Description:
The chain has one domain: Arc Repressor Mutant, subunit A (Orthogonal Bundle). α1 packs across α4 (75-82) and α4 (75-82) crosses α5 (107-122). The protein has helices at 5-19, 27-34, 38-50, 75-82, 107-122, 127-130, 133-147; strands at residues 24-25, 54-57, 63-66. The chain has seven helices and three strands, in the order αβααββαααα. The protein is mainly alpha-helical and 148 residues long. The longest helix has 16 residues, at 107-122. The chain has a three-stranded antiparallel sheet.
Amino acid sequence: MQLSLRADYALRVLIYLGSHPSNSASTAEISNAYGISKHHLVRVVQLLGQHGLVKLVPGRFGGITLTANPADIRLGDVLKAAEPNLRLVECFDEATNTCPITAVCGLKSYLREAIEAFITNLNRHTLADLLTTGRKKKLSEVLVQFSK
C-alpha cells in the first residue's frame, strides 16, 4: 500500500503547524520547508480546511492554523479525509471493476478488514503523539531552517 501525495502532504502540513512556534504559517513557508510544490500544497490545505482540520485566513497577513488541539486530531481521521477511497484493488470500485472473479473471491473482504484495522490503529494516535516535547523542538529546528 502506498499513500497518495495528498495524504502525505496533509500529514506534513499538520506536523508543520503543530511544531511551528506560532502554530500559524503560510503555504509558501510550508512548501519551502518540505521542498514540495506550492500549487499542490494549496489544494491539500483547502482539503484540510474543508474537513475542519485547519483554518485558512486569506490575505497578506493571513495564514494557516490548526483548528483543534493536536491531541484531538486523530491520524486515521486525517488519512481518511485525504484518502477517501482507499481502493487497494480494482474490485473496490464497482463502477470500473472488470475482475471476472469478484463474485466468488474472498480477497476483497480481507482487504477491507485490513484497511479498517489500519485506520483503527492510526486513530489510536494523535498529532500530539507526533509532537512530544523533544520531537517538537527538533522538528521546529529542522523545518525552520528550510522554510526561510
